Structures are given as C-alpha cells and as structure tokens.
Amino acid sequence: MKLLVTGITGKVGSNFLPAFLSAGKFAGWTVRAICNNRVLEHPSVEVIRGSLADAELVRSALDGITHVLHMAAVKESPDLAIDVGVKGMFNLLEAFRVSPTAKQFILIGGDCSVGHIFHPYDAPITEVSPRRAYPGCYALTKVIEEVMLEQYGIQYGINGCCLRAPWIMEKDDFRYALSFSDQFGGPAWSDLLPEDEIEAHARSGAVPLLRDVTGAPLRRNFVHVSDLVCAILHALDHPAARGQLFNIGMNQPVDYAHVAAHLRATRNLPVVEIKTPYHSNWLDNSKAGLLLNWRPTVDTQLLIDRAWDYRRAPDDPRIVWYPG
After folding, report:
1. pTM higher than 0.90 for the full model?
2. How many domains does the chain have?
3. Structural domain span for residue 10
C-alpha cells in the first residue's frame, strides 16, 4: 500500500506522520507527500515538490498510490484558496478516479462548512445537517471540497471519506486562543471590545467568558490534534468509512463558563464576561463512534490543563502559519 499525503508539514500532518509510521496496522506501507511552500525532509517520506493546482504534477504524484489523505488548506487568501481548495481538490479527485491502484480518498474537512459559531442550529449538528458556510473564502472552499468528494462518489463510485473537524488544538494553542495579549484565532477581540479594555485585560491576565447571542455561555467545538490523528488512523483503509462523512470533535462542546470557572479555581485567573453575536452549537460525533469505534480522549479540563502546563523548549518556537 502507498499513501499520498498533502499538508504533511502542517499541525495535523506533523502529528499524523509519526503515529502512522509507528502503527503496526500500516507496517509495510510507504508514504509520498506533495509539498509546496514548506518541504519535509524525512527518510520514510518521498517528497514531490509543487502546487496542487498543477494537474500534471498531481497525476504524476498519484502514480502507484492506493490511498490519499488530503489535509492541505489555506485560510483567507482567495487566490491560494482556489488553487488548493478548488483546483487542487479537483485535480486530486480526477487523478484518483482514473488511477488503476487507487482504493480510498480521505479528506480532512472543517466545521466551517456548517457555520461554526456563525449560524444557529436547533439541534446537535450531525452529518445530515445543512451546510452553511460562514463569510469568507476558506469556509466556502471547505463546503466545495465536501460536495466534490460526495459527488465523485455518486458520479464515479470512488471510495471517499470526509473527517469534519472543528478547531484543532495542540500544545499551548488553547491558552493563546483565550489570550488578550497574543491572540490566536478568533473571534478577534477588536470586534467585540474597545482597545483600552483589551489592553487592560491583557495586563491583568484575564480569561474571557464569552456569551452567545441568547446571553448563555458560548459553547464552541474543538478537537485535540491527537484525537483527530487517532480518527484518521481508524478511518484509513476501514471498510465502514466508505462513502461516509464523520464529525470528529470532542464529546461535548467547550463551555466558556466551565473554562472560566476551572481557570479561576486552578490558576486564580480573573474572568471577564463578553457579549457576542455568536451561536452555541454542538458537533455530534456519535456516528464516528458507531461506525469507526473512535472516541476522543481529550475533554475540556484536559484541554485546558495541557495548554496551561505546556512549556516550550528553546528549539520549539511558537509558529502560527495562519491565524486559526
């Protein structure tokens, strides 16, 4: 078996590769990666350098490939988003469908395809809930990717699987997601608070207790990268994954009131309440548990404690390739 990976140098890819190589289930498999701006140097990975928008390069990269894991993505950069999320996805699927060796195509999707916290849902979000992209080209391309994979299954019968993940956390990400001084991801505090208040909260080390549009504590979906990697390993070459879309998130959304209470009790951090126009949503992961026998291991408390306890080594600088 030969696996082609895109996005192997990213957060998920850099965690996936060692887990894949150490998993006995995949002993004897080989790995090829398409890299563009960042190139991996690893003795177990054959690297092809180039853009996913290059159809001929993609066709060459799929030569002899049995499985594809597509993780490459860009955020709010319209020209690159089209190259990766539309042309790149199309090129990969076209090469896959005509390949005599291709067996399975796995896409890592995102909860931006169902609106994240921007759109309300009256019930937990399942795999049959309507897709509702939030504003911006990134969310649009993630919807397009899901639909393209689904349609290639309908049109040509390819074996596709999408793992739809919410905001992916590792190391100290969650601490910075709550920081007023060095924020990672959104919502941007400047959209919710005046600058002088943001600066005051940064000086005090306060943590936010976000409230949703109803005034209740905001509930928002996350997943730890280790749990997403585990889900990928479960889905890879699994017969029950054929033609399926799976929500891959924590068992419950993160409740900002619980986060604030835990940090106040364990770290003696001040808490500031912030009104937002956002909606609380619940990404239901029960289908992945039923069909793949996958369960996340990182809950809210563990997510918090890992982020606050993490200490970076001198050779492990915090690098944010894109803001979220």
Report:
1. yes
2. 1
3. 2-168+221-250+282-297
Q: Is residue 92 part of a domain?
A: yes
**Cβ atoms of residues 73 and 85 within 8 Å:** yes
**Residue at 303 is within a domain:** no
* Closest by Cα among 93, 108, 143, 145 to 7: 108
Q: Report the SS3 class of residue 116.
A: coil
Residue 272: CA count within 13 A, CB half-sphere: 20
Tens digits of pLDDT across the chain (324 residues): 999 999 999 999 999 999 999 999 999 999 999 998 888 889 999 999 999 999 999 999 999 999 999 999 887 677 788 888 899 999 999 999 999 999 999 999 999 999 999 999 999 999 999 999 999 889 999 999 999 999 999 999 999 999 999 999 999 999 999 999 988 888 899 999 999 999 999 999 999 999 999 999 999 999 999 999 999 999 999 999 999 999 999 999 999 999 999 999 999 999 999 999 999 999 999 999 999 999 999 999 999 999 999 999 988 888 776 554
3-state secondary structure of 241: helix
Supply φ then ψ for residue 48, to 5 degrees. Answer: -110, 125
